[in-house]
Design brief:
CATH topology: Lipocalin
CATH class: Mainly Beta
Order of helices and strands: HEEEEHEEEEE
Largest sheet: 8 strands, antiparallel, barrel
CATH architecture: Beta Barrel
Strand order of the largest sheet: 2-3-4-5-6-7-8-9
Number of helices: 2
């Protein structure tokens, strides 16, 4: 009886191991689009993945980890090169993301619930060395996964222009939440 139980345990382990896969993110095809709003409008741009992977079991996401290159941040809505450069430099400064000290941000998926080709995801987002939980929905089509979520920047010590911390900002106030919309393409 013990040999039968041991054999069953070994076969179960092998079956689980064979059905689990790690899929690397194709960083050339994947993207993150950020949108930040202020009283007088909004700005948008991109941030690049540095690396990432999705853990899959039976072709379903069960986990994953992503590293974002904060030095790659761009602005796509300001055509004037000087103003664009000024905004990107400010976003990289200590007023915002402090990329000299914190060149990377990361997201680790902690719980994934599958609903067909859609997922409810919980994870830990780290920006400027501070980690907080986030949750969002992801849709899947082939080897592409897409979703978006809001981030309260003040939780990550990004307080510049926040009405929570500064008085009399008027039309210079920047809203505390910004949006990250992502497309993750995994290598086949």
């Amino acid at each position: 009886m013990k040999k039968g139980t041991l054999l069953l345990a070994i076969l179960t382990f092998v079956a689980v191991t064979l059905s689990s896969q790690t899929k690397k993110v194709d960083i050339a095809l994947s993207e993150i689009i950020w949108t930040g709003e202020k009283v007088t409008g909004e700005h948008t741009g991109k941030i690049a993945f540095k690396k990432g992977k999705l853990e899959m079991t039976d072709k379903k996401i069960v986990g994953g980890e992503f590293v974002i290159d904060m030095n790659s941040i761009t602005c796509s809505d300001i055509e004037n090169k000087d103003y664009n450069t000024k905004l990107v430099g400010h976003l990289k400064s200590d007023d915002f993301f402090g990329v000299e000290t914190y060149p990377e941000s990361s997201l680790k998926l902690t719980k994934v619930t599958s609903n067909g080709d859609k997922y409810d995801v919980k994870g830990d987002l780290t920006i400027k060395g501070k980690t907080h939980p986030v949750s969002f929905k992801v849709s899947n089509s082939g080897n592409t996964f897409e979703g978006k979520f809001k981030v309260d920047r003040t939780k990550y010590d990004v307080r510049y222009g926040s009405g929570q911390f500064f008085d009399n900002l008027g039309d210079k106030m920047i809203y505390d939440e910004f949006e990250l919309a992502f497309k993750v393409v995994v290598l086949k």
